[in-house]
């Protein structure tokens, strides 16, 4: 603050020259290096002001602040393109999922450019780098014993010949009775739902009645990580960088005990699972999408690990 007051008093001539941008922006020894991301916008529609205000604009403001401080700053983002919402919208528009993603990725990029959002790179998750990094993380988890296999009861539409992922089924909420609840969540009461819990379920594609069928899936064995996670949280909470809301939600999860989390889906639109017996499945988007931050950086520079595996800088 004192330095800012001094420069203000001495006028614009006292302002240090801004850093000349390098391409690519990489961490520099001995400097403050800042990597900024904002939540990857989902690609099945046109972004609106709420999307921009909710995450993109705040990250852009911070990126501009960092650059004015002459900190070495990289700001990346991109469209989140896998998952059932894309498949659903593609069916509605008569397009393939890839065609739909290509269309809306261009729309998103144009909107953010119009708002002059200062991304250093705006990428997407449907890339070879995403497949490579996601599958590598999966193989590491598998080798270290952090995955398990279990049977899930899922709704299958015999008319369509496919298992129905959560967004492909609608029915009556078992908690509040809302008649248009999705297979993952009720938009009225907000409760999370397992699709097989829905009353009067219907296939969104043909409006037929699906049947409950068992299918094998892979799970992230979160209970194995619980002790290590709690120790890490205690250290980071002590640093004071967590909001009260984030602490409360995390404590609630730990209080109830972590449960194994399914990371695969019976779909075709997604990152393929590289394991015999599961090659007809893809990774669940909540496993896959956060890896997009890494793969988008990797598409920006082949030295991406200097940003993501470099805590000393």
UniProtKB/TrEMBL annotation:
Q: Where is the Methionyl/Leucyl tRNA synthetase domain?
A: 34-311
According to UniProt, the reaction catalysed is: tRNA(Met) + L-methionine + ATP = L-methionyl-tRNA(Met) + AMP + diphosphate
Where, by residue number, does the polypeptide cross the bilayer? none
Q: Which Pfam families would you find in this protein's record? A: tRNA-synt_1g
A GO cellular component annotation here is:
aminoacyl-tRNA synthetase multienzyme complex
Highest rank taxon of the organism: Eukaryota
**Which Gene Ontology molecular-function terms are recorded?**
ATP binding; methionine-tRNA ligase activity
Q: What CDD domains does this protein's entry cite?
A: MetRS_core
Keywords, comma-separated and alphabetical: Aminoacyl-tRNA synthetase, ATP-binding, Ligase, Nucleotide-binding, Protein biosynthesis
The entry's family comment says: Belongs to the class-I aminoacyl-tRNA synthetase family.
Q: Record's PANTHER family?
A: METHIONINE--TRNA LIGASE, METHIONINE--TRNA LIGASE, CYTOPLASMIC
Record's protein name: Methionine--tRNA ligase, cytoplasmic
Q: Which gene encodes it?
A: Mars
């Amino acid at each position: 603050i004192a330095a800012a007051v001094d420069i203000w008093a001495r006028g614009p001539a006292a302002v240090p020259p801004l850093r000349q941008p390098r391409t690519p922006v990489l961490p520099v020894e001995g400097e403050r290096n800042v990597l900024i991301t904002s939540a990857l916008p989902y690609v099945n529609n046109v972004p609106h002001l709420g999307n921009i205000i909710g995450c993109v604009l705040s990250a852009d403001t911070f990126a501009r602040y960092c650059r004015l401080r002459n900190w070495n700053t990289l700001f990346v983002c991109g469209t989140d393109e896998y998952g059932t919402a894309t498949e659903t919208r593609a069916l509605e528009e008569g397009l393939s999922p890839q065609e739909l993603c290509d269309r809306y990725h261009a729309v998103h990029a144009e909107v953010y450019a119009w708002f002059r959002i200062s991304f250093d790179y705006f990428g997407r998750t449907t890339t070879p780098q995403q497949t490579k990094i996601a599958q590598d993380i999966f193989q590491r988890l598998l080798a270290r014993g952090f995955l398990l296999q279990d049977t899930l009861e899922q709704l299958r539409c015999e008319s369509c010949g496919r298992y129905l992922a959560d967004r492909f089924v609608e029915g009556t909420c078992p908690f509040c009775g809302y008649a248009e609840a999705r297979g993952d969540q009720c938009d009225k009461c907000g409760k999370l739902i397992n699709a097989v819990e829905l009353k009067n379920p219907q296939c969104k594609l043909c409006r037929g009645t699906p049947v409950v069928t068992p299918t094998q899936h892979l799970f992230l064995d979160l209970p194995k990580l619980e002790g290590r996670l709690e120790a890490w949280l205690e250290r980071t909470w002590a640093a004071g960088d967590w909001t009260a809301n984030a602490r409360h939600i995390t404590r609630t999860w730990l209080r109830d005990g972590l449960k194994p989390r399914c990371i695969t889906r019976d779909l075709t639109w997604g990152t393929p699972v590289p394991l015999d017996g599961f090659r007809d499945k893809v990774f669940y988007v909540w496993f896959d999408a956060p890896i997009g931050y890494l793969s988008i950086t990797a598409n920006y520079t082949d030295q991406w690990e200097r940003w993501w595996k470099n805590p000393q800088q």
